[in-house]
Amino acid sequence: MAGGGRGDALRALLRAANAILQQRRYHAALAVLKGFRNGAIYGAKIRAPHALVMTFLFKSGSLREKLKSIAQATYTHSRNLAYFVFTYKGLMALQSRLQGKKIPFHSFFAACIGGWLVFGENNPINSQIIMYLLSRILFGLSRLAVEKGYIPQPKQDPFPLVAALIWGTVLWLFEYHRQTLQPSLQSSMTYLYDDSNEWHDISDFLIYNKRTDSK
């Protein structure tokens, strides 16, 4: 009987929650909360696999230290993205309410404030996120410039030239000014281009990257 009472109370609570979720007057506030939820989950989904691979490929230390590093990176990325989405959507809702409509500047302003508050600290995770966005912004602005007629439509696909220039530039920087590159990129390129120049026997030529014994 007591179990049935708890079940009835839970069902009543769920019905009340669903009723609130259906009301338009709460939509803006609820969208901000769901944005926080989605930011946290998405940040964890994309950071955890990346941190797992990069940590076990390139970082030394005990298993405990590696797992702690993965958990910390995942938490930081998840938290920051959740805070940013919450701030952005909250400011968007506030501006729209104050002005009575949504205009393009609202998006830019809200994101600037969120970027300053949440991603303004110069640390490895924020740096990776900003560089990820920067590359996509450059592609997006280039396409927008063509769509708006500021740049003539290329007669041929410019992607091969872009790929050549990008790879030429990054390898030049790696070979002669590698301190200007992000540490994780330096680690990846060191593995690919420097470590492949060294070996002692078949073990560290085919099986291992570097020999760990002192032969």
UniProtKB/TrEMBL annotation:
Protein name from the UniProt record: PXMP4 protein
GO cellular component, one term: peroxisomal membrane
InterPro entries with a match to the protein in the record: Pmp4
Lineage start: Eukaryota, Metazoa, Chordata, Craniata, Vertebrata
Superkingdom in the source lineage: Eukaryota
Species of provenance: Glareola pratincola (Collared pratincole)
Cited Pfam families: Tim17
